[in-house]
Amino acid sequence: xxxxxxxxxxxxxxxxxxxxxxxxxxxxxxxxxxxxxxxxxxxxxxxxxxxxxxxxxxxxxxxxxxxxxxxxxxxxxxxxxxxxxxxxxxxxxxxxxxxxxxxxxxxxxxxxxxxxxxxxxxxxxxxxxxxxxxxxxxxxxxx
Length: 143
What we know:
This protein has five helices and four strands. By secondary structure, the chain is of the alpha+beta class. The chain has a four-stranded antiparallel beta sheet with strand order 3-2-1-4, with helices on one face.
């Protein structure tokens, strides 16, 4: 999973990055490499703040255009995004999830917290299976 990022240089020589799938994301820096590093950490934080905490589905990435850079999302974060979106689609709260998997509220929270490692991919997969879904991994060319 790669989110499309448009990087542009300002008249002052700084760089700015935008993501059309996550319009709340805005990052600026002095170099393109700095921007890429900042965006890699800002994408999950933006999703957490503007979507998860607002109890909204997280937009999935659209195809990366030739004028954009693709920012890779680690597989554990991808799985958490998919689990979160499934919960939103089904109208389930974290308390509902905790009850379903017989876990505490903090344990359920770790399964969807995009900014912390807290849950293994295996744990997320077990929950998805409990919800009648499976995770499928695939490869994509680096963008």
